[in-house]
Amino acid sequence: MTRKQRRLVLIGGSLGVLALAAVLVLSALKDSIVFFNSPTDIAEKNIQPGSRIRLGGLVKPGTLQKGEQLAVRFDVTDGNRAIAVNYQGILPDLFREGQGVIAEGTLQPGGGFKADSVLAKHDEKYMPKEVADALKKQGHWKEDYEKKK
Amino acid sequence: MIAEFGHYALVLALGLALIQSVLPMIGARLRDDTLMGVAGPAALAQFVFVAAAFAALTACYVGSDFSVLNVFENSHSSMPLVYKFTSVWGNHEGSMLLWVLILALFGALVASFGGNLPATLKATVLSVQSWIAAAFYIFILVSSNPFLRLPQAPFEGRDLNPILQDFGLAVHPPLLYLGYVGFSISFSFAIAALIEGRIDAAWARWVRPWTLAAWMCLTVGIAMGSYWAYYELGWGGFWFWDPVENASLMPWLAGTALLHSAVVMERRNALKVWTILLSILAFSLSLVGTFLVRSGVLTSVHTFASDPTRGVFILAILMLFIGGGLGLYAWRAPALKQGGLFAPISREGALVFNNLFLTAACATVFVGTLYPLALEALTGEKISVGAPFFNLTFGPLFIPLLLVVPLGPLMPWKRGDLLGVAQRLILAAAFGILAIAATFALMSGGPVLAPFGIGLAVFTMIGALTDIVERIGLARVPLATSLARARGLPRSVWGTGVAHFGLGVSLLGIVCASTWGSERIVALKPGASVSLSSYELTFDGMVTRQGGNYRELIAKFTVRQGGAEIAVMEPSKRTFATRQMSTTEAALLTRGASQLYLSLGDQEADGSVAVRLYHKPLVLLIWLGAVVMFVGGALSLSDRRLRIGAPKPARRPAERPAMQPAE
Predict the structure, then answer these.
(1) Chain A from 14 to 53: CB within 8 A of any B CB
(2) CA–CA dist A71, A94 (Å, integer)
(3) What is the CATH number of domain A35-148?
(4) What is the SS3 string spanning B277-322?
(5) Are A36 and B382 in contact (CB < 8 Å)?
(6) Over the stretch B245-268, which tens digit does the pLDDT of each residue have?
(7) What dihedral angle (degrees, nearest 10) is formed by the CA atoms of B378, B379, B382, B387?
(8) Bridge partners for B587 per DSSP
(9) Does B343 contact A66 at a Cβ distance shorter than 8 Å?
(10) What ipTM did this prediction achieve?
(11) Is B392's CB within 8 Å of A27's CB?
């Protein structure tokens, strides 16, 4: 092998791996990302049932119901609209009515939301950023929350 | 008084850093010994002052001095003593102080142990190191001062975030920072080489031990964080592809690539420009990690408080060093003398293969981590990129890498014979195929990929040992001869074998735990039983216990296997009064390398309690593999002393490091 050929193999190999990585990233980005939506977004964007999304907002006070076999039902609201969420399993430690929450799952044909994971904030200072932004957009953000720290 | 002392020490450290960033650099250019001589003592003094500042903050925490804002916000007088120590870095300001402490420590180590470095290189390296230090001292003093006082001292503190009150947290950040900040040394060496316009194999020999030490700490630091998340967050998962986890994975991938390319540079004087680039990238990714975690662009357990000015400040530091480093690279690297070429099938070729796939894998993690942030900044659209993305991108790029891992060490330098190497790996391949067949035969259902994962892990492990087994002639020569040869084998050969073996161990754990793990979520009333895998668990009832700064609600479970009682497990929920927060403490039962994992949910009105049960086969291998990799790194590191003292081939005398003192 000449010097030139060796260099070509090296450069060709590098470009090959790079192209492979790019193809993998692009195809994965098309299929495996999940969009974040507030209840208002879902109504306005006319999101189709069956699509996988992240739903964020506050747990509407007085809507948490517990059923058989660890089934739970609660409403997620951004102050403007609300969506009923069904979930089966154990809720996180910091899940409380009136607090911020993110549920990941699919939109059901009837307009409800079936969650397969529910995330709450980590501590009393922490509000999921997506939720905070969604609330700000709806004009329900309490400025003092930020200042309280 | 102590807080003011710490503050003052930190200001003095900044002063020293500023002097150290300028004088030795000028000295190195003018070849002035006096100016260059400033670097060493300045680096040592800097470390002393930062250590004093850190000790002062620790004293405030241990003494529960709530007049200091930082202590008030993150401590409580009833907290156990050990957590008073660890809460020093359980908050933004304190953890940045730990960051600079480690930075100063590395500077001091270079100053003390860099005696055989050429004087100009040592002065330039310490000077560059000091640029980084100065930037971070300013950051701390201006926007994250841990020594601020409150006008009126409160009676009691607000307590540390309960999920951080844990032993795993005590060791995770220091180890992780040792890794992150350790890469600053290779960065400083790279910048110094670019400034000096000279780089050779000896350079790689000086950089490699530092990179190796940083890499070792980062490896166990990541493993520790993963184990902490596993048992503390109560989801039983070991890796979530969370942005903050990715932030630590990226420097690890780049650092691993750097480790391997530095070998090529040291032995064969090739890949020089590439190694410089990797040194810059590894530390840049550490800075990106610090930015992601500390700036508040991500919300996670690591984001203690988000203050936009801090984010902007860290971003500025980030751009200065990454932009400056890469700019200098673009300007000066073409002037560096290129090393020799080599055949694609050779040890060098295998290491290039390793580098290509590691950096490509690192790039996919980078895209997956930053794309959501970029998209939100540009379009306002919010997305989340989770495990499916990384499984589709990172996975396919890592598999070829694992296949080649055993081949590399068996390849000769310069020109190799693929067929010959393949023949030597027949045994390893046979074991791998056997493992695949056996898994298929034993497995009932489950993903088809799993047996191949097991086969790959077995191939990697046996393949890693092949080189050592062949060299010591195990089973071919008498055992005593083998043992004698084993003792005589260079430590770095052991290091390579052991570290690669550890990689296989981790893979085995990951495949087993994620494929054959079982999970149940049930609501149980006292006296009820539930079975999982081969275990039978009986819920005996709830008891309460008072801890130092929390109340604990404990569920007692009796575990039976085949009718015999084997253990009592006590998962609990702790409620911390000060923060009005509760944490779930999982109960773990370790059987061999497998674990039974119990985590409590809410107690229902009818007296039943929700429980999450997991059986995780061989899950401990995931972290054990990381420890094995650490041991491999340590073995390789201990070889350095021998290697520097050992005679070099006569035809490369120029590479011998100068043994006389630098000054």
Answers:
(1) 14, 17-18, 20-21, 24-25, 27-29, 31-37
(2) 18
(3) 2.40.50.140
(4) HHHHHHHHHHHHHHHHHHCCCCCCCCCCCCCHHHHHHHHHHHHHHH
(5) yes
(6) 899 999 999 999 999 999 888 888
(7) -60
(8) B598
(9) no
(10) 0.79
(11) yes
